[in-house]
Specification:
By secondary structure, the chain is an alpha+beta fold. It folds into 2 domains: 156 residues, Regulatory protein AraC (Jelly Rolls, Sandwich), CATH 2.60.120.280; 105 residues, Homeodomain-like (Arc Repressor Mutant, subunit A), CATH 1.10.10. Strands 1-7-2-5-8 form a 5-stranded antiparallel sheet. Strands 4-3-6 form a 3-stranded antiparallel sheet, with no helix packed on it. β3 and β4 form a beta hairpin. α7 packs antiparallel against α8 and α7 packs parallel to α10.
């Protein structure tokens, strides 16, 4: 069994093409609410007791479920029983690399959908076995240089993404999200997403807004969402700020529009979250 050691909430890929992973352990740290700024994720669930959040939707996963997660979509698991093995395999695919694998007839990025907030499909057992075998072959390529490694990687990547798109084209495989158990938590989550620019929003103000004590709200949010309300607000604000910066908004304006009245506090939070400064995102946008 592979030891968990990679930082799977990092914001950039180590490679410029595709990375493949296979894990059976639960996360050692707190539940990793995250999104990826410039690459796709395809996730295959094999075993465990897990509810997965993709944007504003929750899915109770079953073995064989495949998650298609475009860039800039927040997602994270709620691991309901950490004593069970949490078996999953997944791919991170650079956008430009996936474009290079596509042809005039076949767009391998089609499964992610323009403007999509992600989706969950279910693979039959035989299809899951096939994609897991291909992922294992990709992982094997990382063990050391080999003859024709680049061609093998491209061939495996193309086969994998063809299988993914074939499943996506079969509408019968689509999974519906599960209704959130708590209407109040759904409303709180919706309110947070619609008022990220309100610097006065806090745990106390949210509790008053929804007629519940702060203690009850925070415990209920953690139980239903698998992450603290405080962490969720920070993650959503960081996500919003990163999006604004990538669109050319100035760091000061991005701070204001994501709910930070104090720019120094925003700078510290952003740098701690991403490992680089708001200005670096702005400069990257200027050069693209």
């Amino acid at each position: 069994m592979r030891k968990y050691h990679d930082n799977l909430t990092r914001w950039t890929m180590n490679r410029q093409d595709i990375e493949a992973f296979s894990f059976e352990e639960c996360y050692k740290d707190s539940t990793p609410v995250h999104f990826h700024t410039d690459f796709y994720e395809v996730y295959f669930f094999r075993a465990g007791d897990v509810i997965y959040n993709i944007h504003m939707q929750q899915y109770k996963l079953s073995p064989g479920d495949m998650l298609l997660i475009p860039p800039n979509v927040m997602h994270w698991p709620i691991i309901r029983d950490s004593a069970q093995p949490y078996k999953r395999m997944f791919l991170w695919i650079n956008q430009r690399y996936l474009d290079s694998l596509s042809s005039e007839e076949i767009d391998l990025a089609a499964c992610f959908g323009a403007g999509s907030e992600g989706q969950v499909l279910h693979l039959p057992a035989q299809a899951l076995t096939e994609v897991c075998y291909l992922i294992e072959q990709l992982i094997e390529l990382n063990r050391g240089p080999s003859y024709g490694e680049d061609l093998r990687r491209a061939a495996l990547s193309s086969l994998l993404m063809l299988r993914v798109n074939e499943a996506w084209r079969s509408q019968s495989t689509a999974r519906e999200p599960a209704p959130m158990e708590s209407r109040r938590i759904f409303e709180v989550t919706q309110y947070v997403n619609e008022h990220l620019d309100d610097a006065r929003m806090s745990l106390d103000s949210l509790a008053r807004q929804h007629y519940v004590s702060r203690s009850t709200l925070t415990k209920s949010f953690m139980r239903h969402m698998g992450v603290s309300l405080h962490q969720y607000i920070i993650k959503r604000r960081m996500y919003a700020a990163h999006q604004l910066l990538a669109q050319g908004v100035t760091p000061a304006k991005a701070a204001e529009q994501s709910g930070y009245a104090d720019y120094s506090a925003f700078w510290r939070a952003f740098t701690r979250e991403f490992g680089y400064t708001p200005r670096q995102v702005s400069r990257a946008g200027e050069t693209t």
